[in-house]
Specification:
It contains eleven helices and ten strands. It is an alpha+beta fold.
Amino acid sequence: MKSNALALFTLTICFVFGTQIATAQTQLTDCTQIRQTNDFLALADRRAELIDDTQDLTGEIAELEKQLPDAITDAELEGLKKQIDDLDKKGSARTELENQTLLNLQSKIKSVKTDTALNQQLAAKKKTLSDDKVLLQCVQSAISQLNSPDQTFRLWMSLLFGLLIAAVIVSFFVLAFRDEVMRRAIFSGETGIQFLTLFSLVIAIILFGITSILESKELSALLGGLSGYILGRTARQAATGSQAATGLAEFQKFLKDLKSIVVKPDNINLSATAKTQQLVAEPKDANGNTIADPAAFFVPTWESSDTKVAKVDETGLVTMVGAGSCTASATFANLKSDPCQVTVT
C-alpha cells in the first residue's frame, strides 16, 4: 500500500514538473508571448535556442541545395521502379547480369531523391528558418527593452555617483559665492579646483570598478598613482602651510578693517578727444584712511550703470560708448563704492 502511494506521488511530481517544463518550452513560441514576458533569463535562453536553430537550418538548407543538381525527376524515378518490377517478374529466369542490374537499381532507388521532394524539403526548411528569424528579432527587441539585474545595479550606481559628484561641485560654488573668505580659502592657489578634480577622479575610478569597465590591476595602478600624487602634494603643502595660514589671517584682518571704497576721480567727462579715463578705487578704514595692501588683496569688480553710454573693464578703465550720462562703481566683499558720475558728449 505504501509503495503504491509512493509511486502515485512520484508520478504526480513528474507530471507537474513535466507540465511546467512543457509550458516553459511553449511559452515563447510567438511574438505576442515574447513581448508579454519580463523574464530576462527566459528570453536569453530562447535567444540562444533560436540562434542554434537558425545555424543548423542554414547548414541543412545549404546541404539540400548541393543535392539538387544530382536529383532526378519524378518521371525518371517511375522509370527506375518499372525497370525493377520488370526484372522482379522474371524471377529465376533472370541472368546473372540482370540480377546484378536489379541489385544496382534497388540500391540506387534507396539513395536517390527527386527534385520535387528536395524542393519540398527546402521550402519547409526555409519557412522554418524565416519563422525562427522573426522570433529571434522579437526576442532581441524584448531583451533590448529589459535590463538584467546586473545592468540595473550598474545604472543605479552610475546615477548615484553622478549625483554625488554634482552635489559636491554645486556645494563648493555655493559656498564660494556666498562668502568672500570661503572663496579665498577654497580657491587660493587652485587648491579647491585640485580637490574637485581628485575627488571626481576617485569617484570615477570606483565607478569604473563597480561597472567592470576596469579590471583589478588597472584599478590598483590608477589608485596607486593618485595616492602617490596626493602624498607628494601633501608633503609640499606642509612646508608652506604656515605661510598660507598667515596669508589667510592677514586677509581676514583686511576685510575687518575695510569700511568703505572711494573711487577717484568722482566725476569724469568723455568725448571724441578723450574717449577713455582711468578710475582708481581705494580701500578705506573707519577713519577714512587708506588701508595698506602689500599682498594685493583688494581687487574690486567694476560696473557701469548704463553700458550704452560707457563701459568699465576689470581694471577700472572707462570707455565711452554713446552720448549720455551714467555712473561707474567698484565692489569688493559685498561693499560698494560711491558712484563716479560719467558724462559722455
